[in-house]
Amino acid sequence: MSNTVRHGLLHQSLCRPTSLEHQSKTSSPGVSINALFQASPAKQGTIQLSKTLICTKFRENNLKVPKTDIIKGRRMVSVVPRAVLATDPASELSRKCILDGNSELKIGVSTSTQGMGFQIDIQVTNISDSLVLHWGGVSYEQKSWVLPSCQPDGTKLYKNRALRSPFSKSGSDSLLKIEINDPKIQALEFLILDEARNKWFKDDGDNFRVQLVGRDKQIAVESVPEDLVQIQAYLRWERKGKQMYSPEQEKVEYEAARAELLDEIARGASVEQIRARLTKSDDKFATKDSNVSKSKSKIPDDLVQIQAYIRWEKAGKPNYSPDQQLKEFEEARKELQAELDKGSSPEEIRKKIVKGEIQTKVSKQLEKKRYFTVERIQRKERDLMQLLNKYTTESVKEKVSVPPQSPTAVEFFLKAKGEQDGGTILNKLFFKLVDKELRVIVTKLSGRMKIYLATDLKSPLVLHWALSRKAGEWVTPPPSLTPQGSVSLDKACETQFTESYYGEPPCQVQSLEIEIGEENFVGMPFVLLSDGNWIKNNGSDFYIDFVVGPKKVKKDAGDGKGTAKALLDKIAEMESEAQKSFMHRFNIASDLVAWAKDAGELGFAGIFVWMRFMASRQLIWNKNYNVKPREISKAQDTLTDLLQNAYISYPPYREILRMILSTVGRGGEGDVGQRIRDEILVIQRNNDCKGGMMEEWHQKLHNNTSPDDVVICQALIDYIKSDLDISAYWNTLNSNGITKERLLSYDRAIHSEPNFRRDQKDGLLRDLEQYMRSLKAVHSGADLESAIANCLGYRAQGQGFMVGVQINPVPGLPSQFPGLLQYILDHVEDKNVEPFLEGLLEAREELRPLLLKSCDRLKDLLFLDIALDSMVRTATERGYETLNDAGPEKIMYFITLVLENLALSSDNNEDLIYCLKGWNHALRMSSSRDGDWALYAKSVLDRTRLALSSKAELYHQILQPSAEYLGSLLGVDQWAVEIFTEETIRAGSAASLSQLLNRLDPVLRKTANLGSWQIISPIETAGYVVVVDQLLSVQNKSYGQPTILVAKVVKGEEEIPDGTVAVLTPDMPDVLSHVSVRARNCKVCFATCFDPNILSDLQSKEGKLLSLKPTSVDVVYSEVKDGELRKGSSTNMEDGSSPSITLVKKQFCGRYAILSEEFTSEMVGAKSRNIAYLKGKVPSWLGIPTSVALPFGVFEKVLSDSSNQAVADTLQSLKKQLGEGDFSALGEIRRAMLQLVAPPQLVQELKSTMLSSGMPWLGDEGEQRWDQAWMAIKKVWASKWNERAYFSTRKVKLDHDYLCMAVLVQEIINADYAFVVHTTNPSSGDSSEIYAEVVKGLGETLVGAYPGRALSFVCKKSDFNSPKLLGYPSKPIGLFIRRSIIFRSDSNGEDLEGYAGAGLYDSVPMDEEDEIVVDYSSDPLLTDGNFRHSILSSIARAGSAIEELYGTPQDIEGVVRDGQIYVVQTRPQM
To answer: Which among 736, 832, 937, 1425 is most buried, taking Cβ atoms within 10 Å?
Structure first.
């Protein structure tokens, strides 16, 4: 076979992409692809292809093209026969002309040497060495040049429109030969370029043209045998890159093959000659390649593979197109040819380029049947709501179904001994003896060390013990140290326990006391002997450690509030036992899983915190105890089985259980762990490395394997791959937290460095990579490769290893799942991570239904899912670089992928799913060029940030108290405790998602013209910068100088502190929230800053005096000197004191309830009077709810009733405390108010009034309904004493006793939407423009402390048909309620001249609102432009109508129900 074909086949093998079953398939009537390329039997010698390099099978001399290669749509790279340089004397000279001076162009045309097509020989004499032919074929069927697949060496594609082929020098001549085999090409056109002089040679200003005579003639010929047509069709398919054809294309290709053969026959070739040519093997293209350099055939194919791989790696592993792949292979071959031409032999080249792991990498690429290919799986269409995990949320508190166990008699006994001893307790130990216990304490006083042992074992007991000067040693104790009656033995001593009774009621305790004195011993090994039976510690010796390292300073553990305290106390008690080995720790954890179940979410949180402290090396892994690897893996197996069962039984805790599993290796019964012990011996024996570092590591592995061994193994592999560079070994260790000191700290210390010989490299690399699988199977359950292998199954058949070890596939996997996982393994290092992320997520989606069902191998699937989850984060971080110059659509798509991953890993993920639906809608808006896409995307981004913030707060609430309490008990480093929750979050997708949002935010703000600020209250001012975490935390403070507060959190209901002249925040309170309204009323500058850099700069200026000058879209700030403070700036402190407001105390009018027609200023506040005024005066299309009221003085009348005397006395006492500055009395007052009893007359009058107004009477639905209503009324009255209102009235010196509270009673309209309108734009002061905000559901999410932004818009009063949308909603929660009654506060302290009292007091519905997570992607207000336009226009019209009625700007609240607008209250806009 010619070298050309071999190269093509080699390249084809390398470039084969993975094919997945869910990709498109071709199945249709007509000529099938399979049939098309099935050859009939041929002679001996039918095209023989390289067995090692091409997957196409050739069995029994038949040409068979596998169905999978064609049917499944694989993109294959063309096998391109090379055209070679021409000096063929048989060429007929068809053209000769002068090019330049004495340079001459000669063109010869002849029949191809293969008897098929044409050969064009081009010769240029006496000219530059740098000539290039710029050329293409001419077909009468198309205008542009045809680019034939058969091209000379070195040909490059130019702008997809032409080919450029270099000439070859031969003396003073430049030569080029082109072969044209395409019957569609009737002529050849070209220009000649002298690249050195950048000079073009043309044919009198036009292209040179060579006519290929005879192409347009039709010649009658004999028929062609079908088997030859099949072979010719196969060769065409190869040349075209083995594309996937449609049925129509199959027919066209088959007939084109027939036409080519007929054309050949028309030129004089016989069928026998064609058959000989097609069935010839090694000489397939020999005649065409007769002038190819003989040296090229000397380059072994595997070296070309390696050189191409090296070039690909150096280029950053890009995804090459098929054309680029071919060029890369040619360049690799040329580079090697150049080395051969210089005199190097293939062996010398091999030695030079085959270093380290390169050959292994290339072979892996070949195994994967891929090389530079771009591949993408086809994701299935799914309903995102199928991802929903929604569980009833419980308050985060420890369940008390399992009370802490009472101390045992043994514990009491040892506690008394310790107190009696009076010394420092060096160590406490606990050992389980089946259903009994053995406890030990070690004390030290004045140099004397004592060991106290006690047990509740009933049968007589002997201690068989020794002492150790180093760990693991048994030394006979000196007679001076042995208790009376002891018997000395060889290297040991035996002492009888003494029996006593202790506790109430008395319980038998056997005990022993041993005094060591000041001898230089470090520990005490022992076993027990009872009734002739030896008792050991899980098959090993017991051990008491005397040497206690320097204690970490323990922070006060506190009271354990917010934790499963009893469980954490137990963990702390067992830690000294857990430190012995992973076997001990995992066994203890298994024992505590049942306790964690009973403690609920906080119980599992406690287990997770403990395991994560372990995984992060904050706890001791092994201490003076030897344990076999199989014992560790068995303990892991037991623990992970229990966690698997809990995962099925406790769905609300699945997220935390996944987190626990991620800290624990998979483990396994039987030989899974034993292989660690056995295989290291095989490695040493096979590779002649029994001493030094390998022997030290072997000893560690035998006595206490740990996750560190995975890192050590990887370090050794990297050391070998780096050609034995020892720095690679240390780099791998150190980057994974293993220092020289840690290696020396193991019980079996590793002192030496590896020092392998070069002849050991290949064997060690093979064996260590195999060994890594065993290590990861035990220690790294969430390692991707290991997790996939455990699910798909594998056999360990490495030479010398435990041949026959077999992991069976997990049953019930989807049919396409193995292919999907193979795709993931094949693309794990891809630079373009987007298709890889799609593959990871498709695998997780396919896996999800299996994770919801119980099965024996569930934990293997869980470990796989955890590994896929982790790989998404890793790949996302690797892909950040590709996003540097990416457009917003690409970043948004990345966000959808990472957000989907987070939703798949989260419990209660409803908000995340709606965010994901929002991003998908944003992408659709962007692709359809919707002008508001960036504005909409910004709202989804804000909501996604809120979702991440909520998740972080939940993690902090659940995990951080446990981390702090357990960390203090165990002496964990303080820094590790403080960042525990932060690091936990950072390990997941939430951190990656946050970074992507940060990248996109400024892009969206710029696109949507949002700027860096939203101005809520545009007041020019100056003050000193104070940075606070929450505005709420300082709302009761009074600043003595003008203060600019930079507050991280502003929820919307806070009071602005005295002395504050500005509030700047990154938070997003609504422009019409209570705090926003109060800021404008109090002339305080209030703005949201979206730019983190600006915010950081403001925070850095803490303590400095700044001048603020807000515009409509920006805040200009600058530092000023103290003397300039009062010049031209509002400071809000001009008079040095707040104004005093006078109230007139209202009296009881003698009525408990009144109709709206009776509302007067003496009986109700402005809220009630305004709503009564509107009735009958507004347009008929504007609804006003029916209202009644409990007038002023009713509360005081109820309080004075004899039935409420006790409450009145309590209130009097608490108000006295309040007057003395005890503000905690406010909460006590509110609680006392709820004890009020309703006088019968109040009930009767309210019933009569409501019925006469047409409202339903609450008590008709049962006594419980009236109780609910009465409680709501009391809560309204009690809100007079809420902190925000109380401090606000104090600030303006309002007499709180004179504040009276009426209650407006209205029937609740079950709203689709709620809105607030300001009829003068509050941000700009433009009275010609209405500003409004709209939320889904009830209005409390708008005016209350609910996170996120409302939909906002403005509308000119002159054109209600053109509302302008300013922002889409980002509030995740909507409030909805059944048909009910609301009781609204209506005090005489609201809407006063110079005082903004609105919103300080509570309105309380009779029924609890339902908090619903809102899906905006299906809300017509966002998705239906016509509906939105109608609703917003109607709201604007309603605002204008009410303003006209009052003649002054209004602050209006209302709702929308079934398209109908209702106004529920209005007041003057302040």
So the answer is: 937
Rounded to whole angstroms, the Cα distance separating 862 from 1330 reads 55
Q: Is 1381 helix (H, G, I), strand (E, B) or coil?
A: strand
Which among 1354, 1356, 1196, 1205 is positioned nearest to 1280, based on CA atoms? Answer: 1196
pLDDT digits 0-9 by tens, 972-1028? 888 888 888 888 888 888 988 988 998 899 899 889 888 888 888 888 999 999 999
Catalytic residues: 1074
What is the rounded CA–CA span in Å between residue 1351 and residue 200? 64
Tokens of 321: 């197109």
Measured between alpha carbons, how far is 748 from 447 in angstroms, rounded to an integer?
30
Rounded Cα distance, 887 and 893, in Å: 10
Q: Could you tell me how far CA 869 lies from the centroid of its own chain? A: 7
HEC string for 451-472: EEEEECCCCCCEEEECEECCCC
Q: How far is CA 619 from CA 755, 970, 1215, 1255, in A?
A: 32, 8, 53, 67
Long-range contacts (CB closer than 8 Å, 24 or more residues apart) made by 1135-1139: 1138/1058, 1138/1291, 1138/1292, 1138/1293, 1139/1292, 1139/1293, 1139/1394, 1139/1395
Distance CA(844)–CA(755), nearest Å, equals 43
Q: How confident is the model at residue 86 (pLDDT cuts 50, 70, 90)?
A: very low
pLDDT bin (cut points 50, 70, 90) of residue 85 is: very low
CB 183: neighbour CB atoms within 10 A? 17
* CA 598 to chain CA mean position, Å: 30
DSSP codes joined into one string, 932-984: THHHHHHHHHHHHHHHHHHHHHHHHHHHHHHHHHHHHHHT--HHHHHTHHHHH
Please give the Cα distance from 262 to 919 (Å, whole number): 58
Distance between CA atoms of residues 808 and 1026, nearest Å: 64
Strand partners, 489: 492
For residue 586, the one-letter residue type is: F
- Which tokens in the block code for residue 990? 């939430």
Cβ(521)–Cβ(467) under 8 Å? yes
| pLDDT at site 12 | 32
- Cα–Cα distance for residue pair 199/538, rounded to 1 Å: 88
Lowest mean pLDDT among 100-114, 854-868, 967-981, 1168-1182: 100-114
Is the peptide bond between 505 and the residue preceding it cis, with omega within 30 degrees of 0? Answer: yes
- Please give the Cα distance from 1097 to 110 (Å, whole number): 78
Under a CB-based contact definition with an 8 Å cutoff, are residues 474 and 491 in contact?
yes
- Going by DSSP bridges, is the β-strand pair 805-807/794-796 parallel, antiparallel, or unpaired? antiparallel
Amino acid at 479: P
pLDDT tens-digit map of 877-921: 888 888 888 889 999 999 999 999 999 999 999 999 999 999 999
Q: Which two tokens stand for residue 808?
A: 């069976």
Q: Determine the Cα–Cα distance for residues 1466 and 407; give it in Å rounded to an integer.
A: 66
SS3 content of the chain, % helix, strand, coil (to 5): 40, 20, 40
Closest listed residue to residue 1083, CA positions, set 1393, 748, 797, 1470: 1470
Residue 805's pLDDT is what? 60
Contact between 366 and 305 (Cβ < 8 Å): yes
184, burial (CB in 10 Å: exposed 0-12, middle 13-18, buried 19+):
middle
The Cβ of residue 808 has, within 10 Å, a number of other Cβ atoms equal to 11
- Of residues 1356 and 1297, more confidently modeled: 1356
Q: What percent of the chain has pLDDT over 70?
A: 82
- Is residue 428 classed as helix, strand or coil in its secondary structure? strand
CB 35 within 8 A of CB 27: no
pTM across the whole model: 0.67
> Mind giving me the DSSP string for 1449-1464?
-EEEEEEEETTEEEEE
Which residues, at least 6 apart from 661, have a Cβ–Cβ distance to it below 8 Å?
640, 643, 781, 782, 859, 862, 863, 866
Cα angle value 382/384/388 (rounded, 5°): 130
